[in-house]
Amino acid sequence: MGVRPEKRTSIYRGVGYNKQHRRWMAWLNQPGKKTHLGMFATEEEAARAYDERAKKVLGSKAILNFQ
Question: Looking at residues 51-65, what average pLDDT do you find?
């Protein structure tokens, strides 16, 4: 269903900020499965990691942050 806009910490899909670690994290949601992609120094790095994995897993059906 997605995250409500007021709860989002990032402008990018599959990216959020972890306050405890003070780092950006990326994940890929698939039906019944959430894959953690790692923690990153910048929001953009996390978004690019999401895009890379989404292309591999979802192919042409992936909705990417960067074209």
Answer: 95
Establish how many alpha carbons lie within 13 A of residue 19's alpha carbon, considering only the half-sphere containing its beta carbon: 2
| Mean pLDDT along residues 41-54 | 98
Q: Is residue 39 part of a domain?
A: yes
Say how far apart CA 61 and CA 19 lie, in whole Å.
Answer: 31
Q: What are phi and psi of 55, to 5 degrees?
A: -60, -40
How many domains does the structure of the chain reveal?
A: 1
Structural domain including 22 reads: 5-59
For the entire predicted model, the pTM comes to 0.85
Rounded Cα distance between 41 and 29, Å, is 21
| Residue keyed to tokens 């997605």 | 2
